[in-house]
Description:
Layout: H1 15-21, H2 24-27, H3 31-47, H4 53-72, H5 84-96, H6 109-144, E1 150-155, E2 158-164, H7 165-190, E3 192-193, H8 209-215, E4 220-221, H9 225-230, H10 233-259, E5 267-268, H11 287-310, H12 324-347, E6 350-351, H13 353-360, H14 367-376, H15 381-398, H16 407-413, H17 421-424, H18 427-432, H19 442-459
Parallel strand pairs: 3-4
Antiparallel strand pairs: 1-2, 5-6
Helix pairs in contact: 3-4, 3-6, 3-8, 4-5, 6-7, 6-12, 6-19, 7-10, 7-19, 10-11, 10-12, 11-12, 14-15
Amino acid sequence: MEKMWAGRFLSALDRQADDFNSSIHFDSKMVKEDIEGSLAHAAMLAKQGIITYDDCASITDGLKGILSDVLEGTLPIDMEAEDIHMFVEAELTRRIGDVGKRLHTARSRNDQVALDLRMYLRNEAKTIRSSLLTLIEAIHEQAAANTDAIMPGYTHLQRAQPVVFAHHLLAYAMMFIRDVGRLDDCVKRMNVSPLGSCALAGTTYPTDRMAVAEALHFDGITMNSMDGVSDRDFCVEMLSVCSLIMMHLSRFSEEVILWSSWEFSFVELSDAYTTGSSIMPQKKNSDMAELVRGKTGRVYGDLIGTLTMLKGLPLAYNKDMQEDKESVFDGIETVQKCLSIFAPMLSTMKVKKDKMREAASRGFINATDLADYLTKKGMPFRSAYKIVGNIVAACIAGGNTLETLPMETYKSFSDLFEEDLFEEISLDTCVKKRISAGSTGPDSVMAQLDYVKAFLADAE
């Protein structure tokens, strides 16, 4: 295929260099967006009198036919083409003749690819957003079913204080809700049209950039033509959002892996989302969660690679920027795959409430409540803290828990202890007493559930 830019050159491009230069293998993903952008551009050219309405009609019919044939699979994309723009233009010219050559008036591949990429990522963001909402809904359902499942909460991976499993799960719901907000913000900044910036300096034709932007559902246009063709902030921001989503998924995966281990045994994953061992018949491995955790580094790499590619580029367009697409495509596809597997894995997960409570009954996780007991009877908290620390040490030495330590032993530490302390330090009471907003107490957990439910209703 002859290059559209071949007029200046006396000899053909080296075959290996041609392959190295080509982007058709990955930017062919944007064929739909490329043709949609060209349709809007052609309509604007006709409206502005730059091409005739008859030429516009021929171009429109030709482009729609190409898109239909590609989507139906009757027109394979020619991998010998340099990029998706050249493939479409060449195929259009083959179908309708020289009229097809008028389409590229008042634009460049520089603003064309910037347009295609914004449109493509805008569409992909909708898919990611939908998957995030599905995951949040799965978290909400599991949380609503486990408001009474008391488990140990951890700091430093050491048992700390009792919480309900619903409270722990809802922490992740809040993370993913923030991710939805970041994604929406990213799309707002992405949703301006660069088409009409041309190569870098604009055009001498009387174009109407706003008409094209409105036809393609953009909120406006880029205000500087050099920025319009060289800006890839939206790619970096999209990958930043993807990286945060993956970080949250990875943290969640780590907990699922721990919870489903024999040592914890807090949950059991469905057979549909686990695998076995080729040599150890007893194994049930949480491979899906482990893969999500592993793929997080891959998305981080896509982000860092894109930042590094951009960091030294002068204005305006440089061929280095062709490297943006493989990274951002890989990042969004990885996130989508991970989200699509995580939600059903979570929904089908069996929660072992008895195992959680058994673990919560050990480890002195009600020690803070014992200190609060003394504080409410008038003792300064720091004094109460020290006494309870001494009591815990005595329990460890004597093989007791705070619940089994005799009252006379408690009295030896402070006369403020009364028989009501055993009720005060029971796990159920420890949870119910957490009355602050955002806490693990019943009213707060219900408020969190309501918040997530309302968010899901508004986000649809």
